[in-house]
Amino acid sequence: MAKTNLKDIQYAFTAHLRDPENNPAPEDIEDRRMGIYRDLFYNNVEGFLSKCFPVIRSIYNDKNWHRMARDFFSRHKSQSPYFLEISQEFLAYLQNERKTQPEDPAGLQELAHYEWIELALNVSDETIKLDDIDVNGDLLAGHPVLSPLACSLSYQFPVHKMATDFLPEQPPEQASHLMVYRNRNDEVKFMEINPVTARLIYLLENNDNMTGQQALQQITEEMQHPNPEVVINGGLTALQELQGNGVILGTRR
Predict the structure, then answer these.
(1) What is residue 1's predicted lDDT score, i.e. its pLDDT?
(2) Splitting the chain (253 residues) into consecutive groups of 10 residues, what average pLDDT does each group show?
(3) Which candidate in 63, 124, 173, 250 could, as Cys together with 133 as Cys, close a disulfide (CB 3.0–4.6 Å)?
(4) d(CA 216, CA 197)
(5) How many CB atoms lie within 10 A of CB 206?
């Protein structure tokens, strides 16, 4: 019976912390003390969200932001116990649980993903191994290898430009293609790339035996470009720039 009572008290305690307006605190606990826990738990989570999603935070006024943060805190059932993965849980909440509100900007989920990826790369424990990489390899004759700390992303909305004074209501005709990577100084950087480079990266990531030349030839055929050399030369320049930034490590030996 004692264990059952303790369990009931624990459930009541955590339910109240999550949603104090709809769940009364356990009996015989001073409200002043409960208030300390209420503020501590919520403020920790809300503060972390504010730091991880600064653009989204700036878009909402205080009332709407705290209403969303509180809704996440009270309703979302996190799958991870790690504090650093709160941002990933918030992303899942936006994608799967939050009903669109009048104050939500168009492209909110994409903007959240864009902001989340910076933290994900910052805390990633992936290591770069060069044992099977020729850092001086021919990027056309060989298979260019991407860093495990680099992501090629495409968004319908221009998330890298969105701010309080720029919130498009509809996505533009052209998608935004971005390369996000952690450089040699462990700094997360963002680079806007064109659709051809995005397609090139996609082909190389999904075809382990494809050379840079073969990938660019396929793109030339897809574009029905009358001058293949223009595409190939432009693609080589893009690969070299990516390698200079640490996105491409070299070619597979």
Answers:
(1) 40
(2) 65 78 78 83 94 97 97 90 89 95 97 96 91 95 97 97 96 96 94 96 95 97 93 96 96 93
(3) 250
(4) 9
(5) 8
Residue with tokens 């082909």, as numbered in its chain: 203
Answer whether CATH 1.10.150.690 is correct for domain 1-104: yes
Q: Quick one: how far is CA 41 from the chain centroid?
A: 24
**Cα angle, residue 75 at apex, residues 63 and 70 outer, rounded to 5°:** 20
* Residue 231: per-residue pLDDT: 94
Q: Which two tokens stand for residue 235?
A: 């693609």
State the Cα–Cα distance between residues 159 and 114, nearest whole angstrom: 7
Q: Listing from the earlier edge strand, what are the strands of the sheet with 188-193?
A: 150-155, 176-182, 188-193
Q: So what's the pLDDT on residue 4? A: 52
Number of neighbours of residue 77 by Cβ within 10 angstroms: 8
All structural domains of the chain with their residue ranges: 1-104, 127-253
Nearest to 84 by CA among 110, 55, 113, 45: 45
User: Rounded distance, CA 242 to CA 137, Å?
Assistant: 14
pLDDT value of position 89: 96
What is d(CA 223, CA 228) in angstroms, rounded to the nearest whole number? Answer: 10
